[in-house]
Amino acid sequence: MPNRSEWMRVSLRTPGILIFGLVMAPCGWVLILTATVAPNWRTLEDIPDTPSNEFIEQGIWDICRSVTTSTSSTCGLEDSTYFDNEIIDVAQGLMVASLVVTLVGLAVAIPGVRCWKERPNWVVAGLGGLLIFISGVFAIIPVSWYTHILEDISTVTPTVTVRVGYCIVLGFIGGIFEVLGGFVMFIGICRCCGGKNRGEVRVEESGRSRFSARPQPRRVDVPSLSRDRSPAPSSVPYIRDSMDDVSFPRDKSAGPRSIDTTSSGRPYDADL
C-alpha cells in the first residue's frame, strides 16, 4: 500500500462517507430509543369479554390497555407470564446495549472525523463506524426474533388477533440506519476504488490531470493592416485621369493655386 505522501485529498471538505455515517447514526438512535421505551411491540385485539373497541398493547417494559375512540391509555398492567418469556429479557438487554454502544461509537467517530483539520484520522473514524454497525445489529436481533415468534409469545390475556406494533417497524428502520451508517464509515479504513471512498487521488495522477486540463490559449484573429496598393477603379471619369498623373499628395500648406482655364485638360481634384 502506498504511503501517505503519495496521496492527496481532492477537497478539504469532510468526506461524504463520514457525513453519511454521522447523519444516519443519530437518526437510527432516535428510532431505536422510541422502539425501546414505547409499549407497542404487538397489539392484542378481539379480546373475549371486553368491548370490541378495546385492545392491549404489549412492549418490552410495559403493557397498556387502550380504546380506539380515545387517545388515553391505562398502562402498568400486570402480566408475569408475558414478562417471563425469554425474548423479553433478551430484547431489554440488547436494545439498551444498542443505545449505549451507539453513543460510544459517535463519541469515538467524531474526533476521528476532525472536520477542523486537513486529513481525518481514518482509523479512529473507522472504529467508531464499527461500533455503530454493531449497535445496529444489537437492535435488529431482538426485533427480528420478536417478529418471528409474534403469535407464540405466551400471555395471560386470551389472544385472538395479534398484530405487529409500530415499535417493530421503528426498530427495524433504526437498526438498518445504524448498520448502513456504521458500515460506510468503516470502509474508510482502507482505500477503495483508487481512493475515491476517501476523496483522495495519487499525487502523480493529480499533476497529470491538472496538466491535461490546462486550457489551450485562445486564438485571436487580428485583422491585417496591409492594403492593396493598386487603387480601385473609380466611377468618376476625371478621377481616373488624375490618378495616373498624381502619385504623391500635394503640399496643403502652399497658398492657393490658380486654375488654368485655358487648358483643354480637365481640372485635377487637388486644384478643386
Inertia-based shape: elongated
Largest β sheet strand count, sense and barrel closure: 5 strands, antiparallel
Distance between the termini: 92 Å
Q: Give the number of DSSP strands.
A: 7
Helix content: 40-55%
Secondary-structure-derived class: alpha+beta
Order of helices and strands: EHEEEEHHHEHEHH
Count of helices? 7
Strand content: 5-15%
* Averaged pLDDT: 76
Strand order in space, largest sheet: 5-4-3-2-6
| Unreliable segments of 5+ consecutive residues | 1-5
Radius of gyration: 44 Å
Offer a concise description of the structure.
Helices cover 44% and strands 10% of the residues. With 272 residues, it is α+β, with helices and mostly antiparallel strands. A five-stranded antiparallel β-sheet has the order 5-4-3-2-6. A two-stranded antiparallel ribbon has the order 1-7.
Notes on the structure:
With 272 residues, the chain is an alpha+beta fold. Helices cover 44% and strands 10% of the residues. The chain has 7 helices and 7 strands, in the order βαββββαααβαβαα. A 5-stranded antiparallel beta sheet has the order 5-4-3-2-6. The protein has a two-stranded antiparallel ribbon with strand order 1-7. Helix 1 packs antiparallel against helix 3, helix 1 packs antiparallel against helix 5 and helix 3 packs antiparallel against helix 4. The radius of gyration is 44 Å and the shape is elongated. Mean pLDDT is 76; it is low at 1-5.
